[in-house]
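Supplementary Methods, section 5.1.

A reviewer requested that the exact input to the structure prediction be made available. We therefore reproduce it here, unchanged from the version used in the analyses.
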Amino acid sequence: MRSNREPTVSDDELATAVLSTVDAISSRRRVNGTELHVVAAGDETDPLVVLLHGFPEYWYGWRGVVAPLVEAGYRVLVPDQRGYNRSEKPDGVRAYRTSVLSQDIVDLIATEGRDTAHVVGHDWGGVVAWDLACRFPAVVDRLAIVNAPHPTAYRRQLLSNPEQLRRSWYAICFQPPWIPELACRSDDYRLLERALRGTAAPGTFTDAELARYRRAWSRDGAVSGMLNWYRAALRYPPQLPTDRVDAPTLVVWGEDDAALVPSLAVDSAGFCATSRLELLPATSHWVAHEAPDRLCDLLLGHLDAGYRSH
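The structure derived from this sequence is encoded token-by-token as follows.
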């Protein structure tokens, strides 16, 4: 069921973030026992696409993708995932298990009166998307992943590739209670700012954009909610019913990712029954920010292929 339909983000803020060429609506929806803030755009009868953000972003990270998808004839949902920005932030690490995060998206799709959707995920949103496709295969029509490893591929790389282990050090630093929260809030969220600006091409994140992110990070409980995704992944590693992804899958990968080795892209695509791998040279982890036009072209080609086949 759809919950509170009253806007939680002003029309002006949505227009400046998403582009004034499409109408976007901000609402709150009750899913899986948790209230999520969701930005929706496009005709409610059009094919549904769900965009899942990662750390330390929120729905705003997909702003350059929403309008092109809507203009191409898609209905788009972009949630703040649980723990982030305007969405509810349950207490305790268990509330952020990957299986719970996937159920959030199953229920979110159902709020549209749909049984299935195209799902696009980046970073942690990509991890949820992989899990969703493996755990609830009937829900995912077509899958698109942007710089996020298949969980089995990631686990294997951690065990066999010292370079990937070195790049993953920060996840261990997020495990203790309260100390990481203090570090993230220190000096006006400088650590989180560096997680964006310090790993992207120069000029990718403007001061105005970072001000938006700081507002999201400063909401009560947001930093703990964001960090609890990392804690839950280590304490409650997901047990997938299968590694195989049946949904046709597009994997887009910025090769200059500071946190993830490029071989993860190849390994991840190998778990898909049907896959297309697009490696983007001179592009960092933040593909939607650095190469939005290229990403939109790839997404539309992938999604339109499924639409034409019906």
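Residues 42 and 75 are 4 Å apart (CA to CA). These observations are discussed further in the main text.
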